[in-house]
Design brief:
By secondary structure, this protein is an all-alpha fold. It folds into two domains: about 1-60, Arc Repressor Mutant, subunit A; about 65-144, no CATH class. The protein is about 70% helix and about 0% strand. It has helices at about 20-40, 45-50, 55-60, 65-90, 95-110, 115-120, 130-144.
């Protein structure tokens, strides 16, 4: 595996990251590319370059661009639903519950990562797997 730029052992060989750390690195790079370019314009080459890895390393973790995108959607969809649920469970005061749920939503939208664009502004909404995840967010927030 190739490491991120600047990560090398004393003998100059790239440092090998643990699988979970590499996956996290790849997801972060993919998120930046997908947010900036949208799904259709984003290329696996761009994501690999942003992560500082070769394409084969990227494909060792994600078999394709859709699987990479879905992994990001899962992460962010789960996070927004969990945050809304936590806000609703934090108090029995309904006014505070509504305030907390709205705050959780807007914290997600206002976050510097702009991950909300993946969930709410996806150029891939016609893809059944994407649509299912977005609907899961809606249903999860409503259920909370």
């Amino acid at each position: 595996m190739v490491a991120a730029s600047g990560d090398a052992q004393p003998d100059g060989r790239p440092t090998r990251l643990p699988r979970s750390a590499r996956r996290k690195q790849l997801l972060a790079a993919a998120q930046e590319v997908f947010v900036a370019q949208g799904y259709h314009a984003a290329a696996m080459d761009d994501i690999a370059e942003r992560a500082g890895v070769s394409k084969p390393v990227l494909y060792q973790h994600f078999p394709g661009k859709l699987e990479l995108y879905l992994a990001l959607l899962d992460k962010h969809c789960d996070a927004i639903v969990a945050n809304v649920q936590a806000a609703m469970e934090a108090t029995n005061d309904n006014k505070e519950r509504v305030r907390g749920a709205v705050e959780a939503y807007f914290d997600f939208v206002d976050h510097e990562s702009e991950a909300f664009r993946l969930v709410f502004e996806s150029d891939l909404r016609n893809e059944p797997a994407v649509r299912e995840r977005v609907e899961r967010v809606e249903k999860g927030c409503i259920a909370a």
